[in-house]
Amino acid sequence: MSIETVLPGRMFADAPVGMALLAASGRIEEANRALGALLGTSAAALVGRALVDCVCREDRGQIESRIAAAVAGRADPRPVNVRMSAPRDTWASLFIGRLEGQAGDAPGLVLHAIDTTERKNLEMQFAQSQKMQAVGQLAGGVAHDFNNLLTGIVGFCDLLQGRFKPGDPPFADILQIKQNANRAANLVRQLLAFSRQQTLRPTVLNLTEVIAELSDLLRQVMGEKIELRTVGGRDLGLVEVDQGQLEQVVINLVVNARDAMPAGGVLTIRTANATIASPLRRGVEVMPAGPYVLMEVSDSGIGIPRENHARIFEPFFSTKEVGSGTGLGLSTVYGIVKQTGGFVFVDSEPGRGAQFSIYLPRAPGKVAAPVRPVEGSGDAIDLNGSASILLVEDEDPVRLFSARALRNKGYRVIDAKSGEAALEIIEHDALTIDLVISDVVMPRMDGPEMAAKIRARYPAMRVIFISGYAEKGFRDRLTYDAQFLPKPYNLQQLATKVKQVLETD
């Protein structure tokens, strides 16, 4: 059957949707330009091809069933949504109908194909976003509860250690408890990183300088079997990131690469400027056009199967043996990079190593801050004091540890279990209170609300907020300057923060 017997040739050739005439066998007899463009070829090149060969293997059964039904006179008017076998990821809605031929002719079929790639990508982006958001919310809630528990565990370990000398038998036991609690705290930080809820302290940095400062530590992490190569880009742009979190990204990627090279190999870290001329789509991610700084971490290891590429950034997904990892390393990388406003992509094939590419927005017109040494060795400071502190915390272990720790340092501590109780105390003891330390999330009246009431009466009152949640969750509500100490914290961190705030003019 010719197309001219169905509709005028120009209407067929210039139709904005893909169209084709099919034989009863499903082979394409005529096709228009839109169908060729959809499949990344010319209309003429499609003639003679079977329609099932134009779709991905996993969708061919649906097409065969639709063709058979149409030939039998039972054409389904609903579209079938399939992925096309085109050079790029292309999705389409296909409508297959029956055309009655002249007497004695076998019935033909007509195909209409509508490109749904953009809609499908948006659906996948939305589904991925919803999944990540749900996991992130769960992780954030779990992290908050664990941070309260770990503050008590780590804190009371510090108090117990103060009663013994390093050679005493209990000292080693307490140290083991504290070390395991710190490992748990690190896992919680990774959960917060994935859920993009950790507190960031961004500074303007040069990536090459950060990597150079880290290089000795990275060599220790990798071991002697792996060679580290660094290639710094010339005239590298600056980025505005949290140096500690950026270091965590690099270390996690290096550890992942090390585990992929059990027999040794080469790990290369390269930095360069990158200008994206038009939006770049990788899977469900779309990176806007603009200036970026690129950091590539490449290894010569075993590689990653393509079917795992879409899942490697999910928390607790791991291809390692049970007990060999938490599955949080790459999810932590993903969370930190995304919270910084960047993008991370992976390119890998089994047996050919892996390359992680991180794009961070360039920070033009700014001056780089000096890179903080990985292990600072500042002079010890005297953490004792004599000021009066109002401590407000509804979690008993956290309150009890914090109060004892500060009293041991010489401070006068008045503690309260709620914001309402703290306001009652402040009415009677306000003139002697130099500092308020308060949890952020508490029943009925939270920390920021309580502190606002106190500062309305005493505007110069210093405030430190403590929380297992991220600082950004409440900072926007404040109309005054306040310090923040994230949970879990130990005795020295608490005493140091208090000393710094009290000594600030």
What does this entry look like structurally?
By secondary structure, the chain is an alpha/beta fold. It has 14 helices and 19 strands. The protein has a five-stranded antiparallel sheet. Strands 7-9-12-14-13 form a five-stranded mixed sheet. Strand 3 (80-84) and strand 4 (90-99) form a beta hairpin. Helix 5 runs antiparallel to helix 6 and helix 5 crosses helix 10. The termini are far apart. 35% of the residues are buried. Mean pLDDT is 82; it is low at 321-326.
SSE arrangement:
Blueprint: H1 9-13, E1 18-22, E2 28-31, H2 33-38, H3 43-46, H4 60-71, E3 80-84, E4 90-99, E5 108-115, H5 117-161, H6 169-194, E6 202-205, H7 207-222, E7 226-231, E8 239-242, H8 243-259, E9 265-276, E10 280-282, E11 285-287, E12 290-299, H9 329-339, E13 343-348, E14 354-361, E15 388-392, H10 396-408, E16 412-416, H11 419-429, E17 435-439, H12 447-457, E18 462-467, H13 472-475, E19 483-486, H14 491-502
Helix pairs in contact: 5-6, 5-10, 6-9, 7-8, 8-9, 11-12
